[in-house]
Write a structure and sequence with these properties.
about 750 residues; alpha/beta; 5-stranded parallel beta sheet; 5-stranded mixed beta sheet; elongated
């Protein structure tokens, strides 16, 4: 099991694997699909289809026909329509998508995105009142609205219809809107329930335009990836086709933004997730998100460039503000009793736009639920992040009367409460998490897709995985388990040494492994440890050079009985006097130096640590060492003379020598006269030949008289195991090969410890 997760090993259906291979799907890909419970060809084809599928009929969604009829009526009557969006990347792309759709239909349409800092998320009465007073008669919400019960009632009273398109959790009370388009509507039966807000807006656009608007899928791909919804089923189709569109014909603004980021390679889901989405999100975090609409709809290169530069600046500011707050929060935690509490709650004069990011950073560092808050006029408002599947929303709901407002899900929430309630909330949540810890395993499960060794990790292996893309929620990058690798080097990097890099190695190569989080979690991993590494395989492009690297998911440090001190010129004077030191020659019992031959006399002694200074003459001694039940056995194994390198003896050479004797006319060989010929034919040396002759004598195959080998005319077929010399050499060679040529992982495996 790993340090962070309980590992779930794959259980493959070999018949299904063979079936997939018959379709020219590689064995690795077949294993990964099978590990993800994909067990029939129909499901497999969904992941590899190159057809431009159009997803499900949009009119299967509840209220779709009603919404389309009302929008068409508004366009025909030249009513003013407003698209009411949200300030994150999903909300921005949803707004642009629907505005562009309505413009193409000739609608009189405008847009509105509430200000995060002044209005908060979703519909608000003041905004709705101003919008309707301006002459708007139809509001269409995108990526919000399902919780706007009172706001929709207000719009109805003021004579304005509201069409809600949303994907967030439906509460007990549903707004009395003209139409509600939601994949999880209780009266609906839409086949796929995990669309992003932009996906729902796209279904409305599809229904309005009466064609599959694939020209809008770039927006759908960005919003879907940014909102981290499931990349399966219909979302997979949208993201796959949307990424193709971005690569073929990117919007001018995106092109400028990517240029500023130095991205000149193919755009994939990782590019969107790490470069495009965070920068779109930074607009709403730092200022009004309206700039995002102008940016995505820009057609003039000069305007687009200026907007891209502004977004880039927002992102730089967002990073700096986040970094400053994280430092301040950590300082407050470390210099107070907060660190000892089960739940971390910290407040200050903080920028509200980045509190969720800060909370995530603090969760990673302290492995506890975290509440980060901005304090203003006696009210604390902020973001919560949880861990270990501790449902923070349910916990908060138990004391809902102490909050002014809150909302969220299992691992994340937003909230506000009066400062006077701080201690009550802190005490309750502290007790809740303590109870959770007592009753739950503080490790989540992590599924392994494929188990391999370091020698199998190659560019060919990585390239073979490309057919699985795009990756995302519910279809993540393959989790690859690399077994029994040695940590060659460990280093921290980053401005504050906050990131971790390991170099792992085996007999054939090495691999750099990095993590930009959890570096504290992996503190106990040390140089020379043998580990199993759970990771994603990727490429690192730096300074014009490309190399393979692993992104660390989790690590299991192997607890071996036999540990490696071979090949490093270990100084035995550093060994504690109380430890047992075994060798073939050194005898100093007062200092616990014993010879292997005396090991039977140690059965009543207890040694936690045993050091093997050189190699025993038989593997049987290793079994006796194990029976002493030490905590660790350290292999130094320094040999002045490796006998298997000196004595070139094996079954084939013995057979060849016997055939040479048989091939002579008188069945005799004078060794003195034929020595060079014998050594050349046998590819051996004099010392080895002497032992080979001794083996034949013990087996009564020959007599050796006056330097002459004489075949016994009455010889019989023999078993080499009946020669004590052969057995002795075989045992020596076996233990030497084991202790000098095998990896430490294999040594422990062979000895079954």
């Amino acid at each position: 099991m790993g340090i962070k997760y309980n590992w779930i090993y794959p259980n493959y259906d070999e018949n299904f694997i063979k079936e997939l291979e018959s379709y020219s799907i590689s064995k690795n890909i077949a294993k990964i699909l099978n590990a993800r419970n994909i067990t029939d060809m129909t499901s497999v084809k969904k992941y590899f289809s190159d057809e431009y599928e159009e997803g499900y009929d949009p009119f299967l969604m509840h209220d779709m026909q009603k919404a389309v009829d009302r929008i068409n009526e508004a366009i025909e009557n030249e009513e003013k329509i407003l698209v009411y969006g949200d300030y994150d990347a999903d909300g921005i792309t949803s707004t642009v998508l629907l505005v562009e759709t309505l413009i193409s239909m000739g609608a009189n349409v405008s847009s509105y995105i509430p200000n995060r800092f002044e209005e908060g998320y979703g519909p608000n009465k003041e905004a709705f009142t101003k919008i309707i007073d301006s002459g708007i008669t139809l509001i269409i919400t995108v990526d919000n609205g399902i919780a706007g019960v009172e706001e929709v009632d207000l719009a109805n009273e003021l004579g304005c219809d509201v069409i809600v398109t949303d994907h967030h959790k439906i509460q007990d009370t549903i707004p009395n809107a003209y139409a509600i388009i939601h994949p999880e509507h209780p009266e609906g039966n839409y086949p796929f329930r995990k669309l992003a807000g932009v996906g729902v807006a796209f279904k409305l656009a599809h229904a309005l335009l009466e064609i599959f608007p694939d020209f809008l899928l770039d927006l759908v791909a960005i919003g879907t990836i940014a909102d981290m919804v499931s990349i399966t089923d219909e979302n997979r189709i949208f993201v796959k086709q949307g990424l193709e569109l971005i690569n073929e014909d990117p919007r001018i603004g995106l092109k400028m933004l990517l240029e500023l980021s130095g991205i000149d390679t193919k755009i994939d889901e990782q590019t969107v997730g790490f470069y495009i989405a965070p920068k779109l999100n930074s607009i709403g975090r730092m200022d009004s998100a309206k700039l995002g609409l102008t940016f995505l709809m820009a057609e003039d290169p000069v305007t687009a460039r200026a907007l891209a530069e502004q977004i880039e600046q927002y992102n730089i500011e967002r990073k700096q503000v986040t970094e400053d707050i994280v430092k301040d929060v950590i300082s407050k935690i470390e210099n107070s009793d907060t660190k000892q509490k089960n739940v971390i709650m910290v407040s200050g004069e903080y920028h509200e736009g980045v509190l969720g990011i800060v909370a995530s950073n603090i969760v990673e560092k302290y492995q506890k639920p975290v509440f980060i808050m901005n304090e203003k006029e006696g009210v604390l408002k902020g973001s919560a992040r949880s861990i270990f599947d501790f449902n923070i929303y349910v916990a908060m709901n138990k004391i809902s009367d102490l909050f002014l407002a809150f909302g969220g899900h299992t691992l994340a929430a937003g909230f506000s409460f009066e400062k006077s309630n701080f201690e009550k909330i802190e005490e309750f949540l502290d007790n809740e998490f303590e109870e959770f810890k007592q009753n739950n395993d503080l490790k989540s499960n992590k599924n392994i897709d494929i188990v391999t060794s370091l020698e199998d990790i190659s560019y060919q292996f990585l390239n073979s995985l490309e057919v699985l893309k795009p990756y995302g929620m519910d279809f993540e990058k393959p989790a690859v388990l690399i077994e029994n690798a040695m940590v060659l080097n460990k280093a921290y990097f980053g401005s504050e040494k906050q990131y971790l890099r390991l170099t792992i190695a085996d007999e054939v190569g090495n691999l750099d492994c990095i993590t930009f989080k959890d570096s504290v979690t992996f503190d106990k991993v040390e140089k020379n440890d043998i580990i199993d590494l759970l990771c994603n395989i990727d490429k690192n492009n730096f300074n014009g050079r490309t190399k393979l690297q692993a992104h660390i998911i989790d690590i299991n440090v192997k607890e071996f009985l036999f540990e490696d001190l071979r090949f490093i010129n270990y100084d035995i004077s550093n060994i504690d006097k109380n430890c047992l030191k075994l060798s073939k020659h050194k005898d100093d019992k007062d200092n616990n130096f014993y010879q292997y031959k005396d090991i039977d006399n140690l059965i009543d002694k207890e040694f936690e640590y045993i050091y093997l200074l050189d190699i025993p003459t038989s593997k049987e001694y290793l079994d006796k060492i194990i029976n002493l039940k030490p905590k660790k056995v350290f292999l130094i194994c320094e040999e002045k003379q490796v006998l298997s390198d000196v004595y070139l003896i094996d079954k084939n050479r013995l057979i060849k020598l016997f055939n040479l004797i048989l091939s002579t006319n008188n069945k005799q060989i004078n060794v003195a006269q034929q020595l060079d010929k014998l050594l050349t034919a046998l590819k051996t040396n004099v010392d080895s030949l002497k032992i080979m002759i001794q083996i034949f004598k013990e087996l009564e195959l020959i007599k050796f008289v006056n330097n002459t080998i004489i075949l016994n005319p009455n010889y019989k077929t023999v078993d080499l195991k009946k020669s004590s010399s052969f057995i002795r050499m075989e045992k020596i060679f076996e233990v030497e090969n084991l202790l000098l040529k095998e990896s430490i992982a294999n040594i422990n495996k062979i000895l079954e410890v």
